[in-house]
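User: quick one
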Amino acid sequence: MLPFFTEYFGNPMSVHSFGRDSKKYLEAARGTIAECLGAEPREILFTASGTEADNWAIRGVAKAYAKKGKHIITSQIEHHAVLHTAEIMEKEGYEVTYLPVDSEGFVDPEELKKAIRDDTILVSIMHANNEIGTIQPIAELGQVCKDKGVLFHVDAVQSAGVLPINLAELPVDLLSISAHKFYGPKGAAALFVRKGTRIDSIISGGGQERGLRGGTHNHVAVIGMAKALELAVSEMEENNARIKRLRDLLIDGLIERIPEIKLNGPRGDKRLPGNVNISIKYIEGESMLLHLDMLGIAASSGSACTSGSLDPSHVLLAIGLSHEIAHGSLRLSLGRENTEADINRVLEVLPPIVKNLRAMSPLYEG
Amino acid sequence: MEYTDKVMDHFMHPRNVGEIENADGVGEMGNAKCGDIMKLYISVEDGIIVDAKFKTFGCGAAIATSSMITEMIIGKSIEEAGNISNKAVAEALGGLPPVKMHCSLLAADALRRAIYDYKKKNGLPVDDCDDCDTCCHDHHDIEEAF
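Assistant: Done. Structure below.
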């Protein structure tokens, strides 16, 4: 990315030679990203975040197809980029169905089939869940949409660069990705819009992205995104095999060492390689996070206390956890830099933290 | 959101954790559904709180305020302790992030309940409002006022 700060810094939309140089690299990045996803370059549109891509897919399609109908289907465990957008669409006169999920977080294609109506214009389901790692059967869900003639958007922010995505074969019409989830820079993302899909613009301005998305390109970040995706795809198989092994060591080790805990989300190949999410009874998530943080281990929690809201994670509640259990959840994400020594360290330090906090808990009768 | 050093100290090294058998007063506040619950035990001699212990299920701020309030009340008379406000607890900790102010209410209310319990057990006059039955949602509502 460095040469694009100093040497090729021109605005890709400018006609002068500096701009033309930047434009050339910007378009090459578009080509790389398209190739990684099995798409055509013109089907890749750049945005500034995965959240913007999700917003655009939902609002843009809803506006473009409002004459056909005003019904949208999504799931209860989507990222807030989709859920909060759907809630706003409801206020704007659209009707939204939030499909339930089973205890492992899966959407049932049969449920989707039943939910689709004549006035349904869009189905938006995430590829992989950010909290509990569940990988949805998007090919199957997409086929249901295709058979019914309804557009299908996939929030693939968690899965791009991690799971194989071949849009040449997948029945998916729109798909969101974000660079920072595959080790690219923050502030670069893209929305795939299949040729022939109508979408209104939600950011008006200049003629960028064929007039569909105004705003000067952050070509430096976009070029970084393309390189990062290329690397992630080429190393995917090798990284996943290694990370999955570490993930399972961590899950098994925690279950073995800490009584009364529960894994959230599925096991095996239907779970994101780097995702571990456990609920630990009788204690609260943030207190675990703080202890881990003091030891240099960064984790997150579904507890309300970490979000500043009243309720614990909507994902954990949707898979049927009680509020009490959801407050005591802990998410540990693994990446390509993690080693077995890291896993052993967590397995060594977490059990005493849990023991300590449980001894302090009025709910624990141990 | 960031905790002060004092909060982290009380969280990492909480004072007076535990239970008091045959405590003179016990106060329980919050509920697990909301993510925080505190149980406070006090021993009282001649109207003075001579010991206090707590058990808390909750976040860092909930544990730190629980610990702090036990330190603040030991050695105080029931009347003095009864006047400790949640703000005083938060101030003693060098402040709390705004979204965590309700945790100080948890501790202050648990204390009020423990005192109420003590007074009732000893046939002392109690005010009705001492037994305020607030749940976490009320806590969060009150937090808005800060």
